[in-house]
Amino acid sequence: MIGRLWGVVAEVGEEEALIDVAGVGYVVRCGSRTLGRLPGTGETATLHIESQWGEQTGMTLYGFLDRHERRAFVMLKTIQGVGPKAALAVLDVLPPAELSAAAARGDQAAVARAQGVGPKLALRIVTELKDKPLGDGPVAGLHTGAAPGTPAKPSASGEAVAALMGLGVAEPAARRVVEQAALRLGDEAEAPGLIKAALQELGR
Length: 204
What we know:
Largest sheet: 5 strands, mixed, barrel
Helix content: 40-55%
Number of strands: 5
CATH topology of the largest domain: DNA polymerase, domain 1
Distance between the termini: 24 Å
Strand content: 15-25%
Number of domains: 3
CATH architecture of the largest domain: Orthogonal Bundle
CATH superfamily of the largest domain: 5' to 3' exonuclease, C-terminal subdomain
Strand order of the largest sheet: 1-2-3-5-4
Shape: globular
């Protein structure tokens, strides 16, 4: 799985960028905010990558300028009804620390500003992300009791779902087997154990 790309910005489109890495061009899907902050064509850039495999589309690469945006994208995708497009749209209007603050105060209206995100989905997002800081700025640290700079830690189940999706498992299947694994192992199960048990469920 590709985790990061460092190369030359060859092209920038409306929804994706072409990054030339040692002569190989990688098409990377990005949000509009990320695309707007990329260096100019011919300059070097580093993108943190989240890979997703689809039966129809094959491998799709999603790019972010820092690891906190990538982590927020992964956590958003673990929420029912939030696909890659919606997750990118949310991060276009709310960077990770601001998204975390909006979730903490239950501000679904702020999340609903994202294109394609309705009130019901916005409510689900702020409910599931509450008390889960997504950035490392001082805003995120205030409502957790953690010191500023402390990175967010997703739930064990969310982390397991994200890991399975990174291995190419479709989101519905990943959620199903992780839920089954959690029922088998109990509420105190850690992510590594859930991932192992979920893979066993997939193999049945």
